[in-house]
Amino acid sequence: MHPSNQVLTVAQVQAAEQALVDGGETISGLMERAGAGAAQWVWRMAAGRPVTVLCGPGNNGGDGYVIARILEERGLKVSVIAPVEPRTDAARAARAAWGGEPVADARGGVFVDCLFGSGLARALDDNLLSLLRRLAQAHDLRVAVDLPSGINADSGEPLNPLLPHYDLTVALDAWKFAHWLMPAMPMMGTRKLVPIGLEQVGGAAQMLSKPRLSPPVASAHKYSRGFVGVIGGAMPGAGELAAMAAMRSGAGYVKLFADDAFPAMPELVTESGIIDELVADQRLDVLVVGPGLGRDALAREKLQQVLARELPTVIDGDALALLDPAMLSGRRAGLVLTPHAGELETLYRACEIEAGSRFGRLFALSHDTGSVVIAKGPDTIIAAPDGGMTLGASAMAPSWLSVAGSGDVLAGLVASRLATGLTLEEGARQAVWLHARAGQIAGPACLPGDLVDAIPQAIGECL
Predict the structure, then answer these.
(1) How many Å apart are CA 93 and CA 16, to the nearest integer?
(2) Does the N-terminal peptide bond of residue 183 adopt cis geometry, omega within 30 degrees of 0?
(3) Is residue 263 over pLDDT 60?
(4) Alpha-carbon distance 254 to 462, whole Å?
(5) Which domains occur in the chain, in start order?
(6) Sign of the CA dihedral with 149 first, then 152, 153, and 157 last
(7) Residue 380, exposed/middle/buried by CB under 10 A (0-12, 13-18, 19+)?
(8) Average pLDDT taken over every residue of the chain
(9) Residue pair 384/366 in contact by the 8 Å Cβ criterion
């Protein structure tokens, strides 16, 4: 993974920056690189308009003085507001290099928030909060440097109410968790990264990235490309959606095991019968259970039979509500769970995972069930039992994906990618990316069927 693709906690950023300093870099040198990179984005946005930079007491404020100096050298009118004197050597040096005098107030073109960056862990005091709000309202455009002031970098939670929203957020050093998490995410506008040379951090979370796919080999046949079985149930349409998505996502053969044979698209093979006999086919590679399954005794029996089959399995929808940790006892084959927020809470209760941090609970669920968990939502997170984490689907996933049936399509996508021979984690990542891209292609007010139809184009873009 490239260092610019990592997502770091505040502690990880601080340790990585210290490693650079130990290797001969200076804080002032790092600040100069960060400020110059941010200034380039502010310059583009300003397009000749005046700029106001709000500088805080720490190194984020120091970045602001660097930005002010560079923009003034380029001929822009810049006003600096500094309600608190610099408190770090690097910030004091940056202010001295700027050489100007702060003003009490300004309004007009572009507001640049360099009050506090990712290190902030407490709420802004009333005076600073009032100043921040007033300046944001008095300018046409708003830029946050590193993070909007008043946001917890590790959780994405606002530390104050009614914080401003920004048109652009320029992340410094590395992506922080808050850049890709609700509720902070919508406050940031467009997000851009300015790397300053941090090395790869071991065990760091990563951003979701475009997969590199290959067409089937010349000698491929339907079974060598992967055989997916989708377990139907009380609401057959959901199972059919999952099966259709699997067919479009790379698997060579997809079969829907339905309670009753019913008319479907001509390409979709359906079969009805006793579930343990249906899933006994030794050619099967991956199973999907949950979309439209129902929650009665028959549905529970189906889930148990599927889990007993010892195949990689995608568990979605109703099956998540029925899942009992005892069903997984002794199971060796891999699982991918695809819960939305409500289903996550159900799983936490079933697995007796106590309240705690969002990531702690998610990792506990992944570890305890031995599964890759795709926690679906506006800030989808993929968690693996080894501690791996992937964020950033929100960088491309349109909010139109929040429609009934969208999750069924994702479940089929995951199963199909697994059937092609990928690991659980890589299959989950590819499926989430393709699902988001299909949403972009399908466009506004899309239906699940539109997502299915858009999958081949999304795959084609990755070949």
Answers:
(1) 22
(2) yes
(3) no
(4) 22
(5) 3-204 (3.40.50.10260), 227-460 (3.40.1190.20)
(6) negative
(7) buried
(8) 95
(9) yes
